[in-house]
Amino acid sequence: MDFGRLITAMVTPFTDDLEVDYNKVNLLVDYLIEQGNDGLVVGGTTGESPNLTKAEKIKLFETVIERAQGKLKIIAGTGSNNTKESIELTQAAEKLGVDGAMLVVPYYNKPSDEGLYQHFKAIAESTKLPIMLYNVPGRTSLNMKAATVVRLAKIENICCIKEASGDLAQVTNILLGTDDKFLVYSGDDSNTLPMLAVGGHGVVSVAGHVIGNEIKAMINDYIAGNVEKAAKEHQRLMPIFEGMFITSNPVPVKAALNQKGIEVGSVRPPLVGATPEQQQFVKNLLQE
């Protein structure tokens, strides 16, 4: 399963009283289609998944599917550190008609390599959906080793991984141990081009909210062999890649969207909105 080259991990819009704003979800989907995205991750880290209820996630998946009308792939963030709950949410998302599910490495409980394998295997075997694994040790405190990914890739519907370890050697070892059908996506915008260089397929992006078309152009240039042009674009976009992480994601990108007139509201506690200084930083970044 190929979800495309540019996938944006969509923020979740909130009202002033921090309820999910499904009307603004529709407008955001329209905007992200215009930004050149091939797919969206809904209810992932950038979508504040830890602060969404199961009912909110299901309604969010349903809303995005209906609005997108097949114009891009919809990947539901259904992973957690609870295998049983992840299975239930994945099956619910499948019934709604999503194109795939993204499963994060279990956080906090720190399972062994075998525990990781059994966790992902159980979820994958409970559904026919294509599965994107998600390795993000900076958030989970646990790095899923290349050998475990290679082992999981043998399960028929585990088709790709969002790799946010920042370790290009690990990415290379994953690619060495899997066939060409297994795709590796960068989990960090700043590593998109370096990961393409070692055999990666694309990116699950945060910056795709604000510079999606530019990221897509950079990827296309690299694929077309215009490596020097892609490198120049990578350099030009780096301030935004880094600027979207001056504080906890998705605080900066929500500030950027609001400043661009794409109203998505603030963030739910325990996150807090951008400070005046951070707002000004984002404003300067967008102007530059």
TrEMBL record:
Pyruvate binds at residues 46, 204. Its EC number is 4.3.3.7. GO terms for biological process: diaminopimelate biosynthetic process; lysine biosynthetic process via diaminopimelate. GO terms for cellular component: cytosol. Keywords: Amino-acid biosynthesis, Cytoplasm, Diaminopimelate biosynthesis, Lyase, Lysine biosynthesis, Schiff base. It catalyses: L-aspartate 4-semialdehyde + pyruvate = (2S,4S)-4-hydroxy-2,3,4,5-tetrahydrodipicolinate + H2O + H(+). It is found in: Cytoplasm. InterPro entries: Aldolase_TIM, DapA, DapA-like, Schiff_base-form_aldolases_CS. CDD domains: DHDPS. It comes from the Bacteria. The active site is at 134 (proton donor/acceptor), 162 (schiff-base intermediate with substrate). Gene3D superfamilies: Aldolase class I (3.20.20.70). GO terms for molecular function: 4-hydroxy-tetrahydrodipicolinate synthase activity. Pathway: Amino-acid biosynthesis; L-lysine biosynthesis via DAP pathway; (S)-tetrahydrodipicolinate from L-aspartate: step 3/4. Catalyzes the condensation of (S)-aspartate-beta-semialdehyde [(S)-ASA] and pyruvate to 4-hydroxy-tetrahydrodipicolinate (HTPA). Homotetramer; dimer of dimers. This is 4-hydroxy-tetrahydrodipicolinate synthase. It comes from Desulfuribacillus alkaliarsenatis.
